Amino acid sequence: MNKVGKATVYRVEWGRWVVSSIRIHKGRLLERLDGRMGLDRAGWDAYLSGQSRELSEATEALWVASQALAYERSDDPGHREERDRCVRELLEQLGRTRSLLASIDPRLVERFGLDGELPRVPKALESLGHHVMGTLRSADQKYSLFGMDVSTVVLADELEPYYRALHEMLMRLHVERSKAEGLLIDRDRALRTWTRVYRAVAGLMESIYGMVEEDELAKRVRPTAWSMEGKVGPEDGEDVQEQV
User: Fold this and answer.
1) Rg (CA), the chain
2) Do the beta carbons of residue 179 and residue 167 sit within 8 Å?
C-alpha cells in the first residue's frame, strides 16, 4: 500500500509543531507583548490565534490531500497485476485461435489479422482482440477440420470474454488514473498553500519570539531551507509539546 511521502510527513510534523508552540507559549507571550507595536493584550491574542489557526488549517489540509492521494494510489499494484493477467489470457486465446486457423488454412491467419507477432502492450492487444473478433464475426463462415465444423462466429464468441476482461480492466485503470491525477493536483495545491503559510507564520513567529528575547524558540521555528524540504523535524515518537 502506498504511504504518504516522508517529506510530506515531516512538513505536517513541522506545521503542527509550530502551531503547538504558538498555543503553548501564547499566555506567556501575551504578558510580554501587551502594549507593544500598538497592540494591547486582546489584539495580540487575536493576532497569535489567527497565526496558529491559519497554519493549522493549511497543515491539516495538506495532510488530508496527501492521504487521499496515497489511498487512491494504494490499489495500483494489484490492478496492474490483474491487467497483466488479462493480457496473458487474451494472448493465449489469440494464440489458440491462430493455431486453429493455421491448421485449417495458413492463409486464414493473415485474413483474420493474426499474422506477425502478437503485441504485448495492453492497449495494442486490446485493439487487436477487438479487430479479430470483428473480422471473425463478419466472415460468419464454417470450415472443416478433422471432420469437425469450425465456425468463425464461435471462435469470436470464445475470444470475447478474454477481450472483455482486458477492456474493462483498462477502462478501470483509466478512470483511476484520471482520479489520481485530480488528487495529485489537489495535493500540489495544498502543498503550495502550506508552503506560503508556513513561511509567513514561522517567519513572523521568529520575529515575535526574538522581540521578547525567546531566542531558543525563535531558532526552533525559523523557516530554514532544511525545514522547508521536510528534512528536519521532531523525532519520531516524541511528543510535540516536549519540543517547545
Assistant:
1) 32
2) no
Q: What is the pTM of this model?
A: 0.62
Residue 68 CB neighbours (<10 A): 18
Residue 224 main-chain phi, psi, to 5 deg = -75, 165
Q: Helices 41-73 and 152-211 sit at what angle, rounded to 10 degrees?
A: 160
| 38 class by beta-carbon count within 10 Å (0-12 exposed, 13-18 middle, 19+ buried) | exposed
φ, ψ of residue 230 to 5 degrees: the values are: 70, 25
Q: Would you write out the chain's pLDDT as a tens digit for each of its 244 residues?
A: 457 888 888 899 889 989 998 999 999 899 999 888 888 999 999 999 999 999 999 999 999 999 988 887 766 667 788 999 999 999 999 999 999 999 999 999 999 999 989 999 999 999 999 999 999 999 999 998 888 899 999 999 999 999 999 999 999 888 888 888 898 999 999 999 999 999 999 889 989 998 988 888 888 877 554 455 455 544 333 333 333 3
**SS3 of the chain:** CCCCCHHHHHHHHHHHHHHHHHHHHHHHHHHHHCCHHHCCHHHHHHHHHHHHHHHHHHHHHHHHHHHHHHHHHCCHHHHHHHHHHHHHHHHHHHHHHHHHHHHHCHHHHHHCCCCCCCCCCHHHHHHHHHHHHHHHHHHCCEEEECCEEEEHHHHHHHHHHHHHHHHHHHHHHHHHHHHHHHHHHHHHHHHHHHHHHHHHHHHHHHHHHHHCCCHHHHHHHCCCHHHHCCCCCCCCCCCHHHHC
